[in-house]
UniProtKB/TrEMBL annotation:
Name of the protein described by the UniProt record: AAA family ATPase
Domain AAA, chain residue ranges per copy: 6-132
Residues spanning the signal sequence: none
Species assigned in the record: Pseudomonas synxantha
Length: 325
């Protein structure tokens, strides 16, 4: 990419997976060879600490695996391919690792041009913001308004439940105000806003009648048959939950899509996420089956984000409220 860095900000005023998503997004981008700068504007430097810790963890694993390779070589023993693959994967991830700097929202606002110039060779600048970015009247603080205006893409994460509709209304109001401000000053509002809907499948009840009706395996005479039947039931439940998630994404799109079109891929809650973050790990470091599922699901989110950035935007201008640029 020879273009200036694309600026992404994740904004929501509740603790709702922003920092975790930025960690995984930046690592996924690194593995695709993109250079990413993260700007940590949270007073508690969560993402900064995490990224630094992740670097140390990766460096240690590289040293350990290199020593293993050396030892096997010296003993004249065969070197396992998966060990070499892991080493290569880690070295690539380390070389392209996301870089993180900490600035307050106020400093970021004041230094934005300098930062963009200093990191001009980066592909993405991702901004992690603290939870409290709204004032007592639910209006965004001045710096967050400016950050939204600077950004190419603002991602607003929501837990896919009705409570978050209140937040969605607030965010839609903010976008509407920003558009109005930009247009009344004779400018343009070019920032794209996409919602990232997060779902916990464990909390979504599968429709048992539907699942039973779709079961094709009916034999329960042997243990093997019963196991196969249970596996089919489990898979059908997962499909049913997925269709409920898709319906919720469509419903959100119908209600808020004008200002916050939802990203097509949802963020799925999986038990692997929380502890990975605390240990300086990411879902991209682990090799377990559950990590692979989380990676596959999150890769779709990354793809949807990259597509949203690339999409031609509808711009509000002074002359014409809505034209396509
Ligand atoms: N996909 C996921 N599956 C399961 N748990 C998750 C997932 N993403 C984040 N979490 C957990 O949810 C909690 C909140 O996440 P996180 O700190 O990333 O949110 P945040 O929006 O940055 O919060 P804040 O607004 O306080 O900065 C953490 O415990 C995190 O580990
Ligand atoms: Mg956070």
């Amino acid at each position: 990419m020879n273009q200036p860095a694309k600026i992404l900000a994740l904004i929501s005023h509740k603790s709702i997976t922003k920092t975790t998503t930025i960690s995984n997004l930046s690592h996924s981008l690194a593995l695709q060879g993109y250079r990413t700068l993260i700007i940590d504007t949270d007073g508690v430097p969560a993402i900064q600490m995490h990224i630094e810790q992740n670097k140390e963890v990766t460096e240690k694993r590289i040293i350990k695996n290199k020593a293993k390779v050396e030892l096997l070589k010296n003993k004249g023993r065969a070197i396992n391919q998966s060990l070499l693959d892991q080493l290569e994967y880690d070295e690539f991830a380390l070389e392209n690792r996301p870089i993180v700097i900490a600035r307050s929202l106020y400093e970021l606002d004041a230094q934005f041009d300098v930062i963009k110039r200093d990191y001009a060779h980066f592909d993405f600048i991702i901004v992690d913001v603290p939870a409290k970015v709204l004032d007592s009247k639910n209006n965004p603080i001045k710096e967050i308004k400016r950050l939204i205006s600077f950004s190419d893409l603002v991602i607003t994460p929501y837990k896919g439940d009705t409570q978050n509709a209140v937040t969605a209304v607030t965010v839609s109001g903010i976008i509407e105000d920003l558009k109005y401000d930009a247009v009344s000053l004779g400018g343009k509002f070019t920032t794209k806003v996409r919602s990232l809907l997060a779902f916990d499948p464990a909390r979504i009840k599968a429709n048992s009648k539907e699942v039973s009706a779709n079961l094709t395996l009916t034999d329960t005479s042997t243990t093997a048959a019963r196991l196969a039947r249970n596996a089919e039931r489990k898979a059908l439940k997962e499909i049913d939950r997925k269709s409920q998630i898709d319906a919720d994404i469509r419903a959100f799109g119908d209600a808020f899509g004008e200002h916050q079109k939802p990203l097509e891929a949802p963020l799925i809650f999986r038990s692997i996420y929380p502890n990975q973050f605390n240990k300086g790990q990411t879902i991209y470091n682990a090799t377990t089956e559950s990590a692979k599922i989380a990676q596959a699901e999150f890769n779709l989110v990354v793809k949807a984000i990259l597509e949203a950035i690339a999409e031609t935007s509808v711009v509000a201008t002074a002359q014409n409220e809505s034209i396509t640029n």
